[in-house]
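User: I'm putting together notes for a lab meeting next week and I want to include a structural view of one of the chains we've been expressing. I don't have a solved structure, so I'd like a prediction I can at least talk through. The sequence is below, exactly as it appears in our construct file.
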Amino acid sequence: MNQNSVDLDSPILLYEQIKAGIKELIKTNSLKPGDKIPNESELCGIFDVSRITIRRAIKELGEEGVIEVIRGKGTFVRASKKDLHLLNLKGFTEGLSTEENNIEKEILHKRIITDDGEIAKAFAHEQTEFVELVRLVKDAEGPFSVDYAYLPLNIYPGIQDLLDDSVSTFALIRETYKVPFTKVKKEIEYVHPPAELCKCLGINKTSSVILVKKIIYGPDGTPVHYSKYYMVGERVKFYIEADYTE
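Assistant: Thanks for the context. Below is the predicted structure for the 246-residue chain, given as structure tokens.
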């Protein structure tokens, strides 16, 4: 962090100037998500103010969700969180892909597989051959999810040749294959990330990871899409919005 002395003649309170200074360092990437903030003594020297002023600035930045204090480790820049609607039928990445979020998707691999276990069970054992599509989802702050999608070949013949980094799987299903979605079932749980996942997401094995399994059904109640995605816990938050009825 560079020297950022406050303006003693400014009508803006000192702690507010400190907050603005730290936010500016984050905005300009001088401090990045996950970076450790200098301790109180160091901040006093950087901004040339008292410890009381620094403490109030840090306290309010924490309350605003800009930084977080991890006991025994220090104070860190908090990564931004993605809002995920639990009842949304949209694909995970499709629901997040806005200009504001600046979401990027990178295909890690796509292949044709056969399965008579977990994946076949999701399709009520009516499908056994699938395209497995694995994508890394990231934004300006880095990777935050690995998304696995399973597409039955007898419902979506040739879909493996149409998939690339720029294609929305859901748009392809709706517009090219004309398959409508009518219902979604989701399961959510915390899991320990396997080594391969840690490498993709840049996390360690003690990091909190949320696993979401999702089955989407067509008009006749037949499963037409199965996916599961592993998300870095500190990068996402879930919400529900539904009409109230008696």
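A couple of points you could mention at the meeting. The chain has a mean pLDDT of 84. The domain at 14-77 is CATH 1.10.10.10 (Arc Repressor Mutant, subunit A).

User: Perfect, that's what I needed.
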